[in-house]
Amino acid sequence: MATNTSEQSAVPIWRDERYLEIIAQAVVVLGIVALFWWLIHNLLTGLESLGTPLSFRFLGQTSQFDIGETSLEYSRNSSYSRALLVGLVNTLRVSLIGIVFATLLGLIVGVARLSSNWLVSRLAAVYVELLRNIPLLVFLIFLSSTVFHKLPKVQEAAHLGNWAFLTNRGIYIAWFDPAASYTVYRWVLMVAALAAVVVAALLIRKGKRTGRMPLYWLWAFVIFVVVTGLGWFLMPTPPLTVNIPSLQGRNFRGGISLTPEFMAIFSGLVIYTAAFIAEVVRAGIQAVSKGQREAASALGLSGFMTLRLIIFPQALRVIIPPLTSQYLNLTKNSSLAVAVGYPDLFSVGGTIVNQSGRAVEVILITMAVYLSFSLLTSLFMNWYNRRTQLVER
Amino acid sequence: MSRKLIVLFAVLIVSVLVISACASAAPAPAEQKASEPAQSTTQSTLDVVKARGKLICGSNQAVPGFGFLQTDGSFAGFDIDFCKALSAAIFGDPSKVEYRPLSAKQRFTALQAGEIDVLIRNTTWTLTRDTELGANFAPTTFYDGQGITVRRDSGVNTLEDLAGASICVASGTTTELNLADQMASRGIAYTPVVFETADETTSAYLDGRCDAYTTDKSGLVARMSLFPNPQDHKILEETLSKEPLGPVVRQGDDQWFDVVKWTVFATFTGEEMGITSQNVDDAKANAKDPNVRKLLGLEGDMGQKLGLSNDWAYNIIKMVGNYAEIYNRNLGPDTVFNLARGLNASWVDGGLLYAPPIR
Ligand SMILES: N[C@@H](CCC(=O)N[C@@H](CS)C(=O)NCC(=O)O)C(=O)O
Prior knowledge:
The structure holds 2 protein chains of 2 kinds.
Chain A: H1 2-8, H2 17-49, H3 80-113, H4 118-132, H5 136-147, E1 158-160, E2 164-167, E3 170-173, E4 175-178, H6 182-210, H7 216-234, E5 240-243, E6 246-248, E7 251-253, E8 256-258, H8 260-287, H9 290-298, H10 303-333, H11 345-356, H12 359-388
Antiparallel strand pairs in A: 1-2, 2-3, 3-8, 4-5, 6-7
Chain B: H1 2-25, H2 27-35, H3 45-52, E1 55-59, E2 62-63, E3 67-69, E4 75-76, H4 78-91, E5 97-101, H5 107-112, E6 118-119, H6 127-131, E7 135-137, E8 142-144, E9 146-151, E10 166-170, H7 174-186, E11 191-195, H8 198-206, E12 212-216, H9 217-224, E13 233-235, E14 243-245, E15 248-250, H10 254-273, H11 280-286, H12 290-295, H13 302-306, H14 312-319, H15 323-331
Parallel strand pairs in B: 1-5, 1-6, 10-11, 10-12
Antiparallel strand pairs in B: 2-3, 3-4, 7-15, 8-14, 9-12, 9-13
The structure holds glutathione (GSH).
């Protein structure tokens, strides 16, 4: 018997690495599970003993407070959940527009940084170094209190004719209001869009066949303008009227407006994130081997064409993963809006915590929302990343 | 292979046993808590404060006259003096206080989480806060109402004149809610611009971002004293709400609640009886009136009933003063605020301050 065992395993179980590995893994997993279980248990019993067990029923109660900036219908009679939704839409608004503009600005600065023009590349470098080394919160407060709040007062608004007004209560720009005939004109717009798409598709097909790509986007644009223009004159009354902002009482009314709070958080996020994106873009471009550039110029491609056709498609592969994390940063940083008075999700959530006392619940919801934003952004960017990756043969 | 599995299984079983053992041990105190709420068997705040050797007082840092962080780093104001009175009652020393400056939005979370022992920070007593926010309100120390500040040259005299205006307000306040209520009930359209702290709110107003700034009238007076040109601004006549301000404690600790309540009552009683920090020693030496003798700890063991020493009220009055002294020191005629007592007079003088008998 004894010899038999020692033949099967020379070392005892507790010194056998194969077993020890499993044991170690099991212990770690259990440790993590236990930790979370303990934390959650602690939270729940803690809340219980405070007399406020975890419950999301408060979401249905009326909020009783107003929100300055809403894209949805909202009043003090709306529920807390509606208030959170308003905050969420405000967060989405500033994040999405912010991502678009930060990408554009970052791209320009990143390319500028590699420019052979000394002044341009130095300026871009100063921009990047300056912005990357200032805490975002400080920058936001600076923008809000020394830029946007110091714009001219309403009575002394800076203006471009009657079309645009710049004040410390916001920017007001003339905009279109749909008139009665707009309901019909909507169809004209749709037909025009459809026509433009069809024409573009046909042209692209032709281009692929003949090997010479026509300026399909130009044609599509022309078609769209012609159809909508014709439609406009065929209408009995103009389908859109221009809404010109004017000073009525204490504030401007009419047109579209952007509040200083929105502009502060928006421009802050864009300018700040663009500095990081610029570095990502620069790294991406520099990662493309010099041979590619040389080959392109040997083929007689212009500088811009080299960038567009040769460098960028290859650089994108390097750019997208770090770009994704910049997008995530921008979205998460938008929660600093509370510091400049923009009613984003976090800010509205804070107010709700205070008025309802439901701190844990609101924080859980807020975390879940940011987490889903981030995961969705990552999913999308990963999908895009896979599309741009080199197909290995 | 099967031996590997057996080992794994054994490890799991053992760990599950260990964990569930912890688990059945852990909730026990919580269950106890739930079955005996508000008993002093759970850790009493008074004991914690005494053991710590100092009181942690949630306070304001931005409202001069009430709670203000001065340039020398010390706190001063009406609310701050009540923190000191509490410290005098507990320790016989008004300086054993650590002040935790809190914004309006942070204060209840700080109280719930046990970061502070008491919140004395121009906080309005409302039903929701008393119930859902898990707070208990000690007697009101300052009866206030919400007001609105506008620029003198704005031509605004009533709330109705503010139609279409932007109004700056601090978030997490009753002020924010009252404003929405009042404007909705009068059908006045306006844009709230909400900031987190009083500093942000007033600087936005001063920059012209808003036509008006609203908070408790006491807060308006206090904040206006910090404006570069206070005479260019005025407070509208209208009062939008009732704002009874007073100290707040967590629910579930009756003894501590009592200590805070009676500390406030002691300052009221001192004024009623005409006992001040100046004459309190005299009164203690010669007191014949049984009520005075009870207040000053000469008979009746009033302090002990609260879990304090019997000279608790003597210490409050001697070291911090009675209500009138506290009021005048911070808000009275000799200060820049010069706020009339109004509702905040003792009931003897036709005001609302009334203390139950100390007996
Ligand atoms: N009494 C009201 C409002 C009290 C309040 O917090 N007022 C503001 C505006 S004066 C304030 O004191 N802020 C000081 C700060 O944010 O530091 C309440 O309890 O909600």
